[in-house]
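Deliverable D5.2: sample structural annotation.
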Amino acid sequence: MSQATLFYLANLLVYGGVDAIACLGLSMQFGVSGVSNFGYIIFQAAGAYTAAVLSLPPDTANGGFQSYIGGLGLPFPLPWIGAAIVGGLVALPFSLLVGRRLTGQVAAIGLLVTAVMANLLVNNFVPLFNGAAGLSLVPAPLHNVINPASQTYQWGYGAVAAVLALAVYLLFRRITESPYGRSLRAMRDNGPVADALGKNLLSLRTAVLVLGGMAAGLSGGVLVGFITLWSPGAWGYAETIVLFAAVIIGGLGNHKGAILGAILVPLGFEEATRFIPSSLGPPGMIPALQWVAIGLLIVGFLWFRPQGIIPEQRRRIFAKAQALAAGDFTPGTRARPPPILSRLAGGGEPREGSGFILSAEAVGVTFGGTRAVDGVSVSIGRGRLTGLIGPNGAGKSTFLSTLAGTVKATDGRILYQGQDMTSTPAYQRARAGIVRTFQLASEFKRLTVVENLLSAVPGQKGDTLTGALRGRRFWRSEELAAVEEAKELMDQFGLLEYADTYAGQLSGGQRRLVEIMRALMARPQLLLLDEPMAGIHPTLALKIGKSLQELCSDGMSILLVEHELAFMDEFCEPVIVMAEGRILGEGTMADLRGQAEVVEAYLVG
């Protein structure tokens, strides 16, 4: 093999490692966590610039022909470490942009606009970035020890890039396979539901933006050390589209797919176009066709194979847990635990304790001039199954959302356990014990049934970034105990055989059951159920009603919105009636049928 071929292959190894690191960072943000960061290239550019100015001597050197800050002349590997740190730091203001104000497609556009503005700034602010000229004569790592032009150096550099890509892959896999990674996927599938289960979405988004930013910054640092120059023209927002194409084509949510995509798209596909004769067509035609081809690849995969070449793998947590439990089982060594519902309701107080767990005082909610909830004042008794009925459009679901914190109250107060929770975010209310379900089925579609349930378990060791980094040994025993609780609950609700099935593949009624079980796994003290019996067979609904009564007997308090009056008759006392955003009456169903205003508004017939 010729020297030129060996040098070319070494270059491919370096670029493959750089692209793999960058794609892994984007996979963590977009594929696992659902954060569409169209400004991703900024992180890589910031890392590359940082590595350059940390490696370069002061800007007065080399004739002072370029302007930049820094010029510290630091030895390897400090410039690469600095590149990763700055890539993460640059992500912090982005987290405020997408975490508090913007979400979904709006956040993606905001990040794209930010990337465009940053590119304009870099190209035009000469004192800081040397303008469009960029930086040159960046010292290669260890250039004083070994000749950067030698084949040994080239292959060694490629090996280091590959090892770094492997290290980033292993780090992100450790995070993704932990309970913390499950929370990231829950946020990806349905952010408002994850919020209502106690997940701090701002904290989660900030963490993945910083982690992805550090990976991008590191990739930029490795690249600039190899090519020994930094040009702002090479970090345009269009480069982010190439990385997105790699992640989509390789496989969303699968880090192996991200590495495969990095090899196929930015490395393989773009390299292949270099072999097309430049004489083919007018000048600039081949680069233009390259972008057209990348766009067609993205559209084609999204249409025909949206899961990518290597799809996200289904995690058979329940089957693996059962295998481990079977291996550890010794007859007669395990005491029979109390019934699962009794344990889940153990945090409350028995009904005899009296009093109210929550009080709403003149709560109002206004949407664009429309009064959805109008001065509602109610109190929810401890250890009681309270019903809430009313015609469609009465404001029941909005009121439930307001109690849970999903919708902010325009006026009034909400007191929970004697504390004012009116301005408390939804995730903090969930952690305090107020857990809700939603009117429409809101399972995490790309999580299995058992993963849906485990995602709600509060205070898990592995459900923090530090806990995830400590590894499986740190959190596995607690996870296995949670799986056993989930097993009992699934068995009671008749879904045990679907434990490792994606929740999005279940029927409507089964998805409702998953949502109820998930809410119970959160160990609520006040459970807010929004039409939980929709789509559920009447026989099973009766069983669920008895289970809810059992939970209340053991100390849990429940507020339940339901249209089926026979269910309210049998299980709920008291029952509250709403119409046009106001409270019409409260009492037993027999009492309410004697009130003309209630009968006229809702109980006619």
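Annotation notes: The longest helix spans residues 3-32. Strands lie at 356-367, 370-381, 385-389, 411-416, 419-420, 434-436, 526-530, 557-561, 575-579, 582-587.
The annotation will be released with the project's public dataset once the embargo ends.
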